[in-house]
Amino acid sequence: MTVLTQPLDAEELAHLTRRWGAAPVEHCHLEVDTPFLTREHQRLLSDGRRAEICYVMIQEEISAGLLLHTKHIYPPGAYRLPTGGVHPGHTVLETLAREVYEETGLVFGDAQEQLRLEGFLGVVAYEFHHKTLGQRFPFATYHFLVRMPSGAVLQVQDPSEEISDWRWCPLTELPAVAESLASLGERVPAWGDWGRFRALSHHFVARHLRP
Question: Packing angle between helix 192-208 and helix 174-182, nearest 10 degrees?
Fold first, then answer.
C-alpha cells in the first residue's frame, strides 16, 4: 500500500481524475510570517498534515448557496468554506468523509437522506515561504462538491472543531467573501497571512464552480 506523505501525489490525482475527469491544479507562492504556521490556531502544519480537503456544500440547487462556517477562535465576521486536514497515510477521500461527519453529522451514501459526492473541483497547491523560519513549506487544498439532502440538520459531532455558526452564501457573493478574507489583516493584523491564504481557495471555487 502506498503511504501518502506529499501534498500532491500523482497516483492519488490520477485516481480522482479517473473518477471525475480532469480538474485544474493551480500553484500559488505565498510569503508569510509569524504568527502564521507558528502560533495557536494558525499552526496549519503542526500535526503533520500534508494537505487539506475543502467541501463545497450545496443544497438541492446551487442557487440556494454554499455553506460557510466560522469558529469561536476567528476574528468577528470571518466566515469561510469548511476544510479539514489530510494526515500522512490518509487519502483525501477518507479525510473528506471523516471531516464532513465530524463537522456536520452527515454521511455519504445512496439513501435519500444521505450526502452525495457530486465531483472533484480541483486543487490549489501552495508553497509557503516563511520569513522568520527561513523555510519553505508545500501544502495543498483539494476541493469537492457535496450535495446535502433536503431538510438535513447540521449537528457538529466534534466540539474541538469550535464551530460557532453556519451561513449560506450565494455563489455570486463568494468573490466578496474571498476579498474580505484577503483584507482581514487590515482589521486584525495577526490574521493577515491566514486570511490571504484562505482567500485563494474561495477565488478558486468562484472561478471553477458553475451553476
Answer: 160
CA distances from 183 to 107, 178, 186, 193, 206 (A): 35, 9, 6, 9, 17
CA distances from 51 to 11, 42, 85, 142, 151 (A): 15, 14, 6, 8, 32
Residue 201: phi and psi, rounded to 5, are: -65, -35
Please choose, from the candidates 43, 16, 4, the residue with its C-alpha nearest in 3D space to the C-alpha of residue 143.
16
Residue 142's alpha-carbon distances to 8, 12, 83, 159, in angstroms, are: 9, 11, 9, 24
- CA proximity to 32, closest of 178, 176, 139: 139
- Whole-prediction pTM: 0.96
Task: Delimit the domains of the chain by residue range.
Answer: 23-208
Strands 83-86 and 116-130: unpaired
CATH number of 23-208: 3.90.79.10
Report cis status (omega within 30 of 0) of the bond before 35.
Answer: yes
The 10s digit of each residue's pLDDT in 1-30 is: 456 788 999 999 999 999 999 999 999 999
pLDDT in tens, 128-142: 999 999 999 999 999
